């Protein structure tokens, strides 16, 4: 595996690979890699001949007072895991490489509407930061395929929209969430949980499973949302939102929409956990 830090060196490597007809895969990450990230790398390896994984803690997607400085940086261990997984190139740009003019005043890419809902409502500007850095990485790497986790369901939807709206010639692939044995979705932020909080954290997934069952049984959506929010609070969390949306575009479901997804975010100690679960409901003839 080669590790590169600047865009010209990465472009030269990519040009070499392209000359010999290699298909390029991209896995953007913020590092502190866990089994969920490695599953993304494996998915990219199954769809491309050469895989570039990026590690960049993108300051543009953190709001004031969020955990930009505390975000775990574990580059040596990340590199070890990536090499072991068969990743070909690790790209670790400095902030000045991606934002040479600084954080403010940089050209941004923003998907209207959905960027301000759900996680975007409590993290203003977050998705603008995500779609901006992903658009840049798409331009730098020009991958044939890029792989993201479905754990960040709204993020994946926004990246698909951004790529479609800007005619990015890349296939965006979403990979299933990897969970701990007790159901907790793997996340770099799980490391913020104390032992007691870690023991309570699987409640988020459990509540989603119960809500999906209720919806499948035909229970009313608004009432299911209310009950699930109450269940999160009972489990000792501070729920941010829990919302049942249409799978296709994350819009509010109408009576004929049967393919749904429940999305939730909840604070537990220092961590803000997110998770989601696709579900379906009977829509009649
Ligand atoms: O999901 C993440 O880790 C980040 O939001 C991403 C897609 C790497 C952009 O910084």
Question: Strand fraction band?
Answer: 15-25%
> How are the strands of the largest sheet arranged?
1-4-3-2-5-6
Terminal CA distance reads: 55 Å
CATH topology of the largest domain: Rossmann fold
- Return the string of H and E elements: EHEHEHEHHHEHEHHHEEE
- How is the quaternary structure best described? single chain
Gross morphology is globular
Count of strand segments: 9
| Structural classification | alpha/beta
Q: Count of helices?
A: 10
CATH top level class name of the largest domain = Alpha Beta
- What is the CATH superfamily label of the largest domain? HUPs
Rg, please?
Answer: 19 Å
- Major β-sheet, in short? 6 strands, parallel
Question: Can you tell me the residue ranges where pLDDT is under 50 for at least 5 consecutive residues?
Answer: none
Give the number of domains. 2
CATH architecture of the largest domain: 3-Layer(aba) Sandwich
Mean pLDDT level: 97
Descriptive overview:
This protein is of the alpha/beta class and 285 residues long. The chain is 38% helix and 20% strand. The strands form 2 sheets. A 6-stranded parallel sheet has the order 1-4-3-2-5-6, with helices on both faces. A 3-stranded antiparallel sheet has the order 7-8-9, with helices on one face.
What is this entry, summarized?
The chain has two domains: 2-175, HUPs (Rossmann fold), CATH 3.40.50.620; 188-278, Pantoate--beta-alanine Ligase, Chain: A,domain 2 (2-Layer Sandwich). It is built from ten helices and nine strands. The chain has helices at 7-19, 35-47, 75-85, 95-98, 119-122, 126-141, 153-165, 195-200, 203-216, 221-234; strands at residues 2-4, 24-29, 50-55, 89-91, 145-149, 171-175, 238-246, 259-268, 271-280.
